[in-house]
Amino acid sequence: MGVYKGKSMSVSQKITWTVVSILFGIVAASYTFVLIWGFVSGTKTGTEFGTMKNPFELPKEWHFENYIRAFSAFQFDSVNLLGMTFNSLWYSVGGALICTTCQMGLAYVTAKYKFRGSGLIYMVCMITMIMPIYGSTGAMYRLVYGLGLNDSFGMLLTSATGIGTGFLMFYAFFQNLSWTYAEAALIDGANHFTIFWRIMFPQCIGLFGSLVLMQWLAGWNDYQGPIMYLNEMPTIAVGLYRFKEYMGGQGDMSLYVAASMLSCIPALILFTAFSNTLLKNMSLGGLKE
Questions:
Q1: pLDDT-based confidence at 247, cuts 50/70/90?
Q2: Is the separation of the CB atoms in 42 and 258 below 8 Å?
Q3: Beta bridge partners of 76
Q4: Nearest-angstrom CA–CA distance, 217 and 211
Q5: Which residues have CB under 8 Å from 98's CB, separation 6+?
Q6: DSSP string across 44-97
């Protein structure tokens, strides 16, 4: 039974909430500590970072200019941090919007329109999610290079797939969404395209936004795809990965940490701004049944 406003909690409920609160507090404190440590480490010199015995020591001199220097000094294949940021933005934002839109469209048609093969689409989605992720890497590699999509904005076309976790979430949403609004619109002469964009889509805008944010975060942190297909257009994740791999921990690690902390800023801003959208309970429809 849930805890309702105005009713006191039992002893067991109080203990449970206390334990859960402590555990979440510890997790939040650990994340906060890592961010603070990273910010402080980014203000050290490269020599100081590599020679100090205690990695948690405060810097002897605070070099906040490291964060400004990172934009020009942190480079890979003549692409600086600003260029990597631009590549990360178009790759992650464009891919998230295209992928989520395709999943929403396929889920809507499959859930609301009965046609031969609609059940097969759902089955294919389930099978592909069970298969190992590396099962299609070879075929995808040949397809991308065969079509010449590598090292170009054409890589966004690989995001135009309607299958994935987002499809299942949209499918469940539209399955439980009343068709009453659509029937009223059909009587008034609206076509199916208008029904979707004017009636159905506004009701799932919360779910759409949440999935776009999650897809964006996955694309922002992804380095496997860009490292295989965007050799001449490295993203921030690829730049950080290759910098540490090639330097072997012997380079200017303070510059590396500063660039890493700068790469976290967009994710922190978006999560702070849209945390309610990600965490709140969303209604499954506009009518009570």
A1: low
A2: yes
A3: 79
A4: 10
A5: 156, 159, 160
A6: S-HHHHHH-S-TTSPPSS--THHHHHHHHH-EETTEEHHHHHHHHHHHHHHHHH
Nearest to 265 by CA among 69, 89, 57: 89
pLDDT band of residue 132 (cuts 50, 70, 90) is: low
Closest CA to 226 of 75, 100, 92: 92
**CA–CA dist 161, 126 (Å, integer):** 14
Place of tokens 């050290």: 44
pLDDT at 219: 92
Write out pLDDT tens, residues 185-220: 888 888 989 999 999 999 888 889 889 988 998 999
Q: Which residues of 181-207 are buried (b: 16+ CB within 10 A; e: fewer)?
A: bbeebeeeeeeeeebbeebbeebbebb
Q: Dihedral angle at the C-alpha atoms of 286, 93, 216, 105, nearest 10 degrees?
A: 40
CATH code linked to domain 73-279: 1.10.3720.10
Number of H helices, E strands in the chain: 14, 2
Pairing of strands 75-76, 79-80: antiparallel
Tokens 């945390």 -> residue = 275
Confidence (pTM): 0.81
Distance, CA of 146 to CA of 143 (rounded, Å): 5
Spatial distance between the Cα atoms of 264 and 259, rounded to a whole number of angstroms: 9
> What's the residue count for the chain?
289
- Domain segments of the chain as ranges: 73-279
Comparing CA positions, the residue from 238, 268, 274 lying closest to residue 31 is 268
pLDDT computed for residue 248 by the predictor: 58
